[in-house]
Design brief:
Strand order of the largest sheet: 2-3-5-4-1-6-7-8-9
Strand content: 5-15%
Number of helices: 14
Shape: globular
Distance between the termini: 28 Å
Largest sheet: 9 strands, mixed
Structural class: alpha/beta
Radius of gyration: 22 Å
């Protein structure tokens, strides 16, 4: 969970371009909908043609890319346009929930909301056969260029079709992987936007990402972390004793490779905290005896995690992800991005590990090879060199972080030595304040304790408004 911009002159319509997380996304694997369409039938899908390869002047082939818009709050004379761009998952409508940050910004600025589907997810695929040769057009570079192209499409086609013919300012934003895209877009296309939000933006590509687990343990505290640690050790032993019975207990009969199964299990406790359900998972294992931990945790996974997160255990299967027939859920597409450039392979900590030793880097190497039939592996240093790693040189970006977010090691550190109002960082702190908390709020109903969400969102909106009203630097 990108952009554009215009320069000076005439009455200005502000376009706020937001790049965010998807309906189902895979940065951990599946995640619950953060900005869910409440009445998608009221907003029809629209389509545009996009180049398959932006970087080959001899290749003019195109594909169809889906987008939506929500004009409920649009002030045609003065209002912004908020472009909410999906990350690693399909889209079913524009943001429209009453507590969505995108919607609140649209109301504040009188904005038109637009959302663009990421290439190779949902309906926006160049190929229905996603064999290895056809995957080469899926990359963050191509996705960033899609966003730049969409900016010009919005300006030249969409806005005129709505009767808007004025100079336009753009902002952009995003969360999680799309939060990284948001910061990276400002690095690569600084001339196209007036400002950006990078919510939980994972700008630092890390190959051996054991820090993820360590931050998770810090977020939940030693008692809860130790219970999950003991549960995993018992689960390892039970897998060795009767793997089929363990798979059945967790409703995962197709996960015959131990690493696939252990990834599913690790994501269940990781993502519960990642999306603000820390009290639920910790209470599920609190005061449970060692011998009963696996059974208690299986109950939590099958009766709470699976239905709340809407996740299919089979999607963790190597065989499922190796299918070369296109799957709109994007599981194969997300693993291509990880295996080819983004990494973020979550491994056990070398210091008192929690997750199974089956999730070492060697598992991920084998997984990438089995899924794509080639020895593919990301070059993390190259990706960080291209975009800047933990200190991307991007001006006018608000970096937002939840205090409990396990992804903090991959987010921006102190954004360079620029003035605070050039690259501010907003931290929203509470027990449920986790990944992309500003975008969708805290579960289960969106509210966070002590007004911290409202205060954090107010700071973010104030920066956007300030930059919109200043000359472009």
């Amino acid at each position: 969970k990108n952009r554009k911009k215009r320069m000076k002159v005439a009455p200005l319509v502000f376009v706020v371009l937001l790049v965010v997380v998807g309906v189902q996304s895979f940065i951990g694997h599946y995640r619950p909908t953060l900005l869910q369409a409440e009445k998608s039938g009221a907003f029809p899908a629209h389509y545009k043609r996009t180049l398959i390869d932006h970087f080959d002047p001899l290749n003019n082939a195109t594909f169809t890319q889906k987008y939506y818009y929500n004009d409920l709050y649009f002030n045609h004379a003065h209002g912004p346009v908020i472009l909410y761009i999906n990350g690693e998952g399909p889209i079913s409508g524009p943001p429209q929930g009453a507590n969505d940050e995108i919607v609140l910004l649209a109301k504040r600025f009188g904005a038109l909301i637009i959302t663009l589907e990421h290439r190779y997810f949902g309906e926006s695929t160049p190929f229905h056969n996603v064999s290895l040769p056809n995957m080469r057009f899926l990359s963050s570079r191509q996705a960033l260029q899609d966003l730049a192209d969409f900016i010009f499409y919005t300006r030249s086609d969409l806005l005129p079709s709505l009767g808007v013919r004025r100079e336009i300012k753009f902002l952009h934003a995003g969360g999680s992987y799309s939060g990284a895209l948001s910061a990276w877009f400002k690095v690569k296309f600084p001339h196209l936007t007036y400002g950006a939000i990078s919510s939980s933006g994972v700008v630092h590509v890390i190959e051996d990402f054991y820090q993820f687990e360590e931050q998770w343990a810090h977020s939940v505290g030693p008692d809860c972390a130790n219970q999950i640690r003991k549960m995993n050790r018992h689960l390892d032993a039970e897998w060795r004793s009767n793997a089929a019975q363990v798979r059945s207990l967790f409703h995962a009969p197709t996960l015959i490779i131990e690493g696939d199964f252990q990834k599913y299990i690790a994501d269940s406790w990781i993502e519960s905290v990642q999306y603000g359900y820390q009290p639920e998972i910790c209470s599920a294992v609190s005061n449970v005896t060692d011998n009963d931990l696996v059974a208690a945790y299986a109950k939590y996974v099958t009766t709470f995690f699976l239905p709340v997160f809407g996740m299919n255990p089979n999607s963790y299967s190597t065989a499922y992800q190796a299918q070369e027939s296109y799957m709109p859920d994007g599981s194969r597409s997300w693993w291509w991005l990880k295996c080819s450039e983004l990494a973020w392979f979550e491994t056990p900590s070398p210091h008192n590990p929690i997750r199974s030793p089956a999730l070492s880097l060697s598992y991920y190497r084998d997984h990438c090879r089995r899924v794509f039939g080639a020895n593919i592996w990301p070059n993390a240093n190259r990706t960080n060199l291209n975009y800047g790693g933990v200190t991307p040189a991007a001006r006018r970006v608000v970096y937002v972080e939840g205090s409990q977010d396990p992804w903090q090691a991959a987010s921006v550190k102190k954004p360079s030595s620029l003035p605070e109002d050039t690259e501010p960082k907003v931290v929203i702190s509470c027990e449920r304040c986790a990944h992309c908390v500003d975008l969708g709020g805290c579960p289960p109903h969106g509210e966070c304790s002590n007004g911290v969400l409202t205060a954090g969102r107010a700071k973010i909106a104030a920066y956007l408004e300030k930059w919109l009203n200043e000359p472009f630097p």
